[in-house]
Every structure is written in C-alpha cells, then in structure tokens.
TrEMBL record:
Pfam family, one: HypD
NCBIfam families: hypD
Species name: Urbifossiella limnaea
Protein name: Hydrogenase expression/formation protein HypD
GO molecular function, one term: carbon monoxide binding
UniProt record similarity statement: Belongs to the HypD family.
Single GO BP term: protein maturation
InterPro entries: Hyd_form_HypD, HypD_1, HypD_2_sf
UniProt KW keywords: Iron, Metal-binding
Taxonomy, superkingdom: Bacteria
Length: 373
C-alpha cells in the first residue's frame, strides 16, 4: 500500500536505528508531541531500538487527555439537560469528570450520541428542530477546522438549535510552556505532522531560536519517526537548532490556507485550561463574537461549575513529560482502561493507554541515562 507499507520496512528501520546509535555521544531527551506518535513508538517498539542515552519523552498532544475536567463536567451538565441531543467522539464518553463520565449520564437516560463528524451533529439539528443539539468541540489544530466549518454551516442554515461546547487548544503555546518550565528536560521536539498539515510550520522557527531547540516535523509511521529522531539527534550533537520538515509528503511551510481561513472566520485565540497542566496563555480558541450565539457554555449557563481532579491521578506529570506512565503507582492497579483515573488511560492517543495496551507494565524507562537539566 502506497504511503504505508514502505514506511514500515523493518530493514530500513534497523538501518536508521543504527545511524542514531552511532550518532549519539551523550544523554538527550526528545519529546514526541503527539499521542499518535507515542502509540506508534510503543506499538512498534521503536524506543527499544535506541541507545540508552537517548530518552523519548511523551508530550501533551492527546486532544482527549488535555481536555480539562471542568470541560468534562460542563459536558455532563449539558448532556443531562432536558431535550438535548449531546454529540461527541467516542473517546470522550469514558473520560472521567469530577464524579462520573458521559456513559453514566447516558445510562440514566440522557440522549448522548457518538458521531464521526461535527457535520453529523449539524444534520441532527436540522432534522430535530424541536430539540437542542450540542457538539463537544475538542482537540488541536487538526480537528478545529471541521468544527469551525460545522458552526459556519449552522449559521448559513439559520439553525437556532445547534451549539458547540468548545475546548480547543493550540500546540505551539504548550511547547513553549514546557520549554519555559524550570523542570524541563526536553532538548528537541518531534512536531506533530497532522497539526502542521493544517497550520504549516512557519510558527516554529521563532520558538526554536528563542529556546535553542531543534524541531523536526514528523509523521506517524516507524520510518517517519526514526527519521525525525535521527534528524533531531544530528542537530543536538552538532549544537544547532533549526526547524526541519521530515514529513514533506503531507506538510508544507504554509499549511492549509483554506482551513486556516475557516478557523480565523469562526474562532479567536484565548487563554485555555489544560487538564493536569493548568492555564496556558493564548493556547486555545473560542467562538468569535459573530458566532457566540452557538456557544453551548453560554446557552446552558454551565460556566461556573466547580470541578476537581482525582488526587490519585498523575496524568498531568505524564502530559508534561516528567513522569512515564509505568512510573505512576496507580498504573495498571487502581488505574486501568476499565477503571481510568485520568484521560491518559482511556484515550486512544493517551500515553498511559499505550503503555498498558502494549504491555509496558514495568518502569524500564528509569534504567535509561538521565538528560542533564
């Protein structure tokens, strides 16, 4: 299959891994930003091909994982309201809020539906004019354009019974928050290729220059990831900090201008809370004034709900790259995919789910050399 099997060639993977092992002379920590990259690394055992001095740190790029517990609690309140059809992607139904999840609300009779596109929710609103239809709009720059298009289409159709509960976040401010933290160990990034397919990578050179970190735009297949790691290692060893595109079959410097225009039409940048991380300035999107009438948070007056994280969940440390999933005392014991304490264990892109599903049940990462801070 073109663009798939050729990027899973085992012989080429071993060759790239050998080049990486030959290039590394001292400890380095490289963060793969996206949870999809984390799953590919763990699933294919790529980290086990690397030298012990090289540590892969898992980043905050899982849209379900970083949706704050307060947003989940608002979703629960809206979903439970009379006459509402609440629409979400499937992963969100099992993410715990302060006391329960959307499955529990659905079990008590709420009309919670899994959709595969926000436009499905628009169609539901058009076909059910007597009911309020709400779509849970979460995610990064990859999902936001489709959600913006849904709001734009609802406006064109004149739908008064459609709204979105917005919890969108942006990748570059999160990378800067990690780099500016006193606890930061990350020396280079594998930037998320799908985010860059929308936004391009013109936003990254100032970040690379300010923090003197290599940033390599990277895809999701084994050879994509090994090539991204090799490029990052070469820069680290050479003392350079440029932005490289190792995913040119998908990503261009400027990105998808049409998608960016739709985002700019519907959304504006705002401060945003991240689950387990806290508030990051200018790291999210909210509806612009002209589209504010589609804001479910205002329509259902659920902005003042008080929320609390589980005191036993350490997913925030996992998302910041300061803790490996299998270093958490709750991992695989009180926290499993069936009984998750946090979203990182239940999401299809969560780092904890990757470690659990692919059998990384012991903390082998602690045996690796530690990158100097």
């Amino acid at each position: 299959m073109k663009y798939l099997t050729e990027f899973r060639d085992g012989e080429l993977a071993q060759k790239l891994a050998a080049e990486i092992r030959a290039a590394v002379t001292r400890p380095w920590a490289i963060m793969e930003v996206c949870g999809g990259q984390t799953h590919a690394i763990i699933r294919h055992g790529l980290d086990q091909l690397l030298p012990p001095e090289l540590e892969l740190v898992h980043g905050p790029g899982c849209p379900v994982c970083v949706t704050p517990v307060a947003a989940i609690d608002r979703a629960l309140a809206v979903a439970a309201a009379p006459g509402v059809i609440f629409c979400s992607f499937g992963d969100m139904l099992r993410v715990p809020g302060t006391r329960e999840d959307l499955f529990a609300v659905k079990g008590r009779g709420a009309d919670v539906r899994v959709v595969y596109s926000p436009l499905d929710a628009v169609r539901l609103a058009k076909g059910n004019p007597a009911r309020q239809v709400v779509f849970f709009a979460i995610g990064f720059e990859t999902t936001a354009p489709a959600n913006a298009l849904a709001v734009h289409q609802a406006a064109q159709l004149g739908l008064a019974n459609f709204s979105v509960l917005v919890s969108h976040v942006l990748v570059p401010p999160a990378m800067e928050a990690i780099l500016s933290s006193p606890a930061n160990r990350v020396r280079a990034f594998l930037a998320a290729g799908h985010v860059c397919s929308v936004m391009g990578y013109h936003q990254y050179p100032p970040l690379a220059e300010r923090y003197r970190v290599p940033i390599v735009v990277t895809g999701f297949e084994p050879l994509d990831l090994l090539d991204g790691i090799r490029r990052a290692v070469r820069q680290l060893e050479a003392g350079t900090h440029a932005v490289e595109n190792a995913y040119p079959r998908v990503v261009t410097f400027d990105g998808n201008r049409a998608a960016q225009a739709m985002l700019a039409e519907v959304f504006e940048v705002c401060d945003r809370d991240w689950r387990g991380i806290g508030t990051i300035p200018n790291s999210g999107w909210r509806l612009r004034g002209g589209y504010r009438r589609f804001d479910a948070e205002e329509r259902f007056a659920v902005g003042d709900i008080r929320s609390a994280e589980s005191p036993h969940c350490r997913s925030g440390e996992v998302l910041r790259g300061t803790l490996k999933p299998n270093q958490c005392p709750a991992f695989g014991t009180t926290c499993t995919p069936r009984t998750p304490l946090g979203a990182t264990m239940v999401s299809g892109e969560g780092a904890c789910a990757a470690y659990f599903n692919y059998g990384r049940l012991t903390a082998v990462g602690t045996e690796r050399a530690t990158c100097p801070t």
